[in-house]
Amino acid sequence: MTTVTAPPATGSGAGTFLREFLRDPVRTASCLPSSRTLAAVATAPVPETGDPVVVELGPGTGAFTGVIAERLGGRGHHLAVELNPTLAGLLERRHPGVDVVGDAAALPALLAERGLGAADVVVSGLPWAAYPQHGPRLTDVIAGALHADGALTQFGYTATRSLPPARRLRARLADAFEEVVVGRGVLANIPPAFVITARRPRPRP
């Protein structure tokens, strides 16, 4: 396997992330923020030109947020959807240029309220548990909020990729997108991780 290398992140907010993990381990999923190496892989579809709309789901302490902001360089619109109020407040203080809001299930409405239409890229750091087993599918909500040529990236931990929630998510992504690619392991992350990239949302009734 190959890995992608990148400069180390600074100011990761690891203490805050650990506290939130201990408070709610199911929704936080890890006791450590993602590495900059993983962030480089997950944010690769963010366009280097134009004024793209980039949505970040479950940004946590902002491990991907800073990398997205660097790639955008002030272009377009960066919408970060974070349900945890403690982490949302941290993001607002550390990244004042990012539009921080609350609920991923309301993504189409959040975009419409801002006159943005659809997203070009969705970068998701949501844990598997954030995709409910029953009821409306969050994968369909995300697909419906993307442009026809848009892309979604979702990272997960290598140790969990064969568990039922991971298999269920890949199946739902295949229902919602024409192309779903499971990337190689990012061994430099702790714990080791991988990124799923889904493209070309399927039309919905």
Q: Helices and strands: which structural class?
A: alpha/beta
**Fraction of residues in β-strands:** 15-25%
The SSE order reads HHHEHEHEHEHEHEE
Morphology:
globular
| Strand elements, count | 7
End-to-end distance: 40 Å
Give helix % range. Answer: 25-40%
Question: Unreliable runs, pLDDT <50, ≥5 residues?
Answer: 1-12, 24-31
Averaged pLDDT: 86
In the CATH hierarchy, the architecture is 3-Layer(aba) Sandwich
Q: Give the total of domains.
A: 1
Largest sheet: 7 strands, mixed
> How many alpha or pi helices?
8
Classified by CATH, the class is Alpha Beta
* Order of neighbouring strands in the sheet with most strands: 3-2-1-4-5-7-6
The third-level CATH topology is: Rossmann fold
Radius of gyration: 16 Å
- Give the CATH superfamily: Vaccinia Virus protein VP39
How does the SSE layout of this entry go?
Elements lengths: L13 H10 L1 H4 L7 H7 L10 E5 L7 H8 L4 E5 L3 H10 L4 E3 L5 H7 L5 E6 L13 H7 L1 E12 L6 H13 E6 L10 E9 L4
Parallel strand pairs: 1-2, 1-4, 2-3, 4-5
Antiparallel strand pairs: 5-7, 6-7
Please characterize this protein's 3D structure.
- With 205 residues, the chain is α/β, with parallel strands linked by helices.
- The protein has one domain (29-201): Vaccinia Virus protein VP39 (Rossmann fold, 3-Layer(aba) Sandwich), CATH 3.40.50.
- 32% of the residues lie in helices and 22% in strands.
- It has eight helices and seven strands; from the N terminus they run H-H-H-E-H-E-H-E-H-E-H-E-H-E-E.
- The chain has helices at 14-23, 25-28, 36-42, 65-72, 85-94, 107-113, 138-144, 164-176; strands at residues 53-57, 77-81, 99-101, 119-124, 146-157, 177-182, 193-201.
- It has a seven-stranded mixed sheet with strand order 3-2-1-4-5-7-6, sandwiched between helices.
- Helix 4 links the parallel strand 1 (53-57) and strand 2 (77-81).
- It is globular.
- The N and C termini lie far apart (40 Å).
- Mean pLDDT is 86; it is low at 1-12 and 24-31.
